[in-house]
Amino acid sequence: MGLKIGSPKEIYAGEARVGMTPDSALQLQKLGYDCVIEAGAGKGAGLSDEAYRAAGVTVVETAAALYETADIIAKVRPPESVEVDRLTPGKTLISFFYPAQNKELLDQAASKGANVIAMDMVPRISRAQKMDALSSMANIAGYRAVIEAGSNFGRFFTGQVTAAGKVPPAKVLVIGAGVAGLAAIGTATSLGAITYAFDVRPEVAEQIESMGAQFVYLEFEAAQDGAATGGYAAPSSPEFREKQLAKFRELAPEIDIVITTALIPGRDAPKLWLADMVAAMKPGSVVVDLAAERGGNCDLTVPDQKIVSDNGVTIVGYTDFPSRMAAQASTLYSTNIRHMMTDLTPAKDGVPVHNMEDDVIRGATVTKDGAITFPPPPPKIQAIAAAKPKEKVKELTPEEKRAQEIAAFKTQTRNQVGLLVGAGALILLAGLYTPASFMSHFIVFVLACFVGFQVIWNVSHSLHTPLMAITNAISSIIILGALMQIGSSNYLVIILGALSVLMAGINIFGGFMVTRRMLAMFQKS
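and the corresponding structure tokens:
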């Protein structure tokens, strides 16, 4: 008989997410588990107790009954002290935990003899992406940050030209291009804003630009590489920070919306958008600080509050962005939990196997059988491969460039002379054994092939299709022969000539129309 897994109602004020949804419960039952839910636990996410019952989940009335019934407790927020007190030896708690910041809670959980799996400690390796709850929640936070900014911003994101006047597009700056930052970039760009983004890791510039945003570069040679920090940015040097702040001060007067996402694990949020930058922004601008829970990236951020500065800039410091989209957040988080349980239950018999040799399970486990197992050893698999330094292209001197051009010209000349000599020899050979009437047509054919080859050979690949269309149109010069035959005295020849004129005409006009449309694809207008 399988163990029971249950989700209590979150007791943290304002938290609307839930650790289990009816859909995830169906998948957990396939792993052999019986599912339990506290009454009303899914109400904030729009999930009724009836929906859980329909999915085969047992609904209990109180949290105490759930903790007593369930062998595995799956919740969202780090547990409160009263919740840890309900754990007993052998039980397993799966939730966000933040062990580095909650030392007392960690000691309390260990003293209870319970196993604790911290979803925020899942290592960022490829195999663990399906369990990466931090990324799931950051994705929602980045999206919601743009929506929140829009609700506090007094204009459109996209530019418009209307009968009532012209509306310029909003300019958005996203600081930090992690999961939350990339989600914010994608949302702001899709809404039509001119989006800028900055990150201390230069290798993310391609990701940013591929999403339609502009990467903010610094004139700084010793830019740090965060590749060896498990997917997070590393603290920057004082010199780099000064260049960074100077660039932000330069951008501040023209930016309408700033979204900050910069966080370093185990540290307070770095101050990146200072009070003087807020003072330089236009009235009505918005700053959304996703790092508010760790002190904020903005000097004026007040956690869990929205304030307005003296110059009319709104600073949003909410710490519950995922909870503000509870239905979506619960779906993604419960899926992360389900994937974790899949790894814990290889036999699908409802009995978890806590394999401490597994990088993912070992990394996420912070207490086991009464012992504190935090911090974990580094994973055997590197999270992100260090970026290889790009080879510098050697600058050629004018003499070297000239020598290369001469060599290329000589090679091309040799090839063309060889081709002409070979073709001439073949034509001469054919002329010795074929009649004069054949040779006149054959020479025209060969010259046509040569001219076509020379015309098409150096054409860019992107223009091959329009070139084929125009060639098709030109080849319809055969319409002249059809027109000449229409004057024949034979009705069959007249009918065939008319059909030939019709088809050749379609070829001509269609070829030129296709060419025009194809060439228009390469024009910016």
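(Above: one complete record from the training split.) The radius of gyration is 34 Å.
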